[in-house]
Amino acid sequence: MADKVTIADVARAAGVSRQTVSNALNTPEVVREETRRRVLDVVEELGYRVNQAARQMRTGRSRLIAARIDPEQDGINGSVGDRFLHGLTETAAREGYRVLLYTADGDDAETAAFDDLLGAYEPDAFVLMATHHGDRRTTWLAERGVPFVTFGRAWSDPAAPHCWVDVDGAAGTEAATRHLLSQGHRRIGFLGWPKGSGVGDDRREGWRRALAEVGLGVAGLHRETEDDVVPGEHAARDLLDRDPEITALVCASDSLALGALHVARAPGPAWLAGGHPHRPVAVVGFDDTPVARAIGLTSVRQPLAEVASSCLRLLTHRLDGGAGAPPEYLLLPPSLVVRASG
Amino acid sequence: MADKVTIADVARAAGVSRQTVSNALNTPEVVREETRRRVLDVVEELGYRVNQAARQMRTGRSRLIAARIDPEQDGINGSVGDRFLHGLTETAAREGYRVLLYTADGDDAETAAFDDLLGAYEPDAFVLMATHHGDRRTTWLAERGVPFVTFGRAWSDPAAPHCWVDVDGAAGTEAATRHLLSQGHRRIGFLGWPKGSGVGDDRREGWRRALAEVGLGVAGLHRETEDDVVPGEHAARDLLDRDPEITALVCASDSLALGALHVARAPGPAWLAGGHPHRPVAVVGFDDTPVARAIGLTSVRQPLAEVASSCLRLLTHRLDGGAGAPPEYLLLPPSLVVRASG
DNA sequence: GTGAAAGCGCTAACAA
DNA sequence: TTGTTAGCGCTTTCAC
C-alpha cells in the first residue's frame, strides 16, 4: 500500500501551514500566486491527494453520487441502463464525483436503500432511472431534502417539482411514423404498453400525432401488452390478423419489435424461434439496443450519454451552486436509426 | 436531509458510554447480553447507522470495492460486464460493501485511476475484468500490496500470484463441439481471435480437444479475426468457401457467431444486413448475450452471478481474515444453452 | 464489563 | 495573506 501523504507532509515540505495548503487547493484565489505555485508543485511532487473521508467529515460532502444498477430484465432493454450508467460515471469523474452502485427491487426496497446509503456513505445525491406515476422514490427523497435528478420526467407532477432529464419519446415515435409514411405506408399500427405508464403513453402519443397530421385515425390500429418478446409477438399477430391492410408497425421497445419481427417477416427465418410465415411488414423499435443493431431493426435512439451528462450538470449546479433555485429540467430529442427492417 | 444520529445519541438514549455502543455493534462478545440488547434496541429505534467516513478515518477501511464499468464495445459482448457488475453489487451489499465505479481506457489509464481512487476514496479492494497477457494492472496493484481479485485467470503467471475467478472457456467450446458432433456434424470449424490472447487460445483449445477426442484434426478448419460482427462474417465466408464440407462453426463470441450467421443461413433472411445466400451451417456462439437469445443462437453461458459472488468471497476472505494466506483461485464450469442455430 | 481520552485528516472560523 | 484552534464521528488504548 502506498504510504499515505497528508496535508501536513505537504505543508512541511512547502514551508507553509496546513491551512495554506488547503486554501491553495480549495480556495486558490485567497492565496498569493507564488505561494500557491510552490504548494501545488509540492503536491505534484509528493503525489498528494485529499482524503475524501477526512474532507467529508469536515464538509459533510462525500462527492459520491448513488445510482441503481438494474438486473437485466429481458436483457434487451437492460442495455439502456448500462449505457446510461457508463455515461454517468465518465461525466461524474470529470466533475470530481464518483458513482456508488446499489441494487433494489421495487420502489420500497429502493427507498430503504436510500436510507441505508444516506446513513452510512452519505452520497451527495441520487440519480434515479425510470420514473413512473406515483413514484414513491421521488417523494421520499424530496421530503428529506436529499438532492436528486431523474432520468425520466416527473410524471406524477408535471409542474416539475424536481430536477429531471428525459428524452422526448413522442417525438421519437412521431419521427418513426413519419419515416414510414414517407416510405409509402398508409396503415401503420402501434405496439405498446398498457395505458397508465407515462413513458408508454408518451410513445403512443407520438405515433397518433403523426397519423393525425396526415388525416389518419388510429382506431383498431394499436395493441397494448407486457414489454417482452413473446407478448409482442402475440400482440403483433393479433393486430396483423385482424387488419390485413397494416403494412408497418411502430413499437414502444426493441423487445416488442423483436416479437413483431417474428411474425412480420415472410418467410420467417426458420431459426428465429417461433417464427411463422406472414406477410412482410415494416417494423420500427425503440432504444436502438445491441439487438436492434444485430438484427437490422430500425429503431429510435436515445442520446444516453447526453442524458447522463445533463443529469450530472443539473446535479452539480444544484450541489455546488444554488440549492434554492427552482428545479431545472430538460427534454432531449431522440434520433431515428434506419436499418433494413423499415 | 434526515438529521444525523450519532453514536453519542445512542449512548445517551441507552444510558451507556459511546464506547459501549461501539462495542455492542462491532465486538458484541465483549458486552454483557443485557446491555447489548438495550443498545441494539435503541439503535433500531433511532435508526442509527455507523458513519462510514468516521469509521474509515479510524480504521482505514472504507468498505468500498472499486470496479470498472466498460464502455459497451460492440454492444453485444458488453452485456457480460454489466451482468457481472450487477452480481457484484448485490453480493457486495450483502457483505456490507459497496461498489464504486470508475472508467478507464487501457491498462495505463486504469492504473492511473487506481492511483486516484486510492488517494481519495481509499477503496479496500479492486475487482478487475478481462485479464490478459502482460497485464500491467495486476502488477501495479501487487507491487503496492493493494488487495484485488480478477475475473479472468492470471494468464501471464499461471502459478497464480493473485486471487482470481474464471470460467473454463475450453470446457465451454469443448461442450459446444461435442454437442455438434452428437448432432452428426463431422467437419466443424472454429472462428476465434488472433493467437496470443489467453481467453481466445483457451476457447480454441476446447474445440480442438473435442475433435481430437474423436480422432479428427483441425487443419484448415479455423480462422482468427477481430472480435466483431463484420470480421466474423468475412472469416466465416472465407472458411466456408474454402472448405465445402464444413457443416458447423464454433465461435469464440456471440459477435463472431452473429457474423457467421449472416453467411451460414440459406437463404439468408433479407433483413439481416449483408446476408448472402449460402448453405445451411450450424453455429454456436459464446457468452449467451441478449443478442443470442433474440436470434435463437446456441451459445455457451458463463455463470456470471456465481463468478461475481465468488470474486467477492475471495476478497472478503482476504480482507477480513488472512491477508497473508496464499492467493486462492477458482475455475467455474460454463453451460451450453441450445437454441435453433445449432 | 464499562468509561475516558486521544486522534485519524481535513477545513470553517477566527486571530495574527 | 498566513497561521492557530477546534472538532466532524468513530474506534483503539488503557484505566477503572
UniProtKB/TrEMBL annotation, chains A, B:
Residue ranges occupied by any HTH lacI-type domain in the UniProt entry: 5-59
Pfam families, A to Z: LacI, Peripla_BP_1
UniProt entry keywords in alphabetical sequence: DNA-binding, Transcription, Transcription regulation
InterPro entries: HTH_LacI (IPR000843), Lambda_DNA-bd_dom_sf (IPR010982), Peripla_BP/Lac1_sug-bd_dom (IPR001761), Peripla_BP_I (IPR028082)
Gene Ontology MF annotations: DNA-binding transcription factor activity; transcription cis-regulatory region binding
Record's protein name: LacI family transcriptional regulator
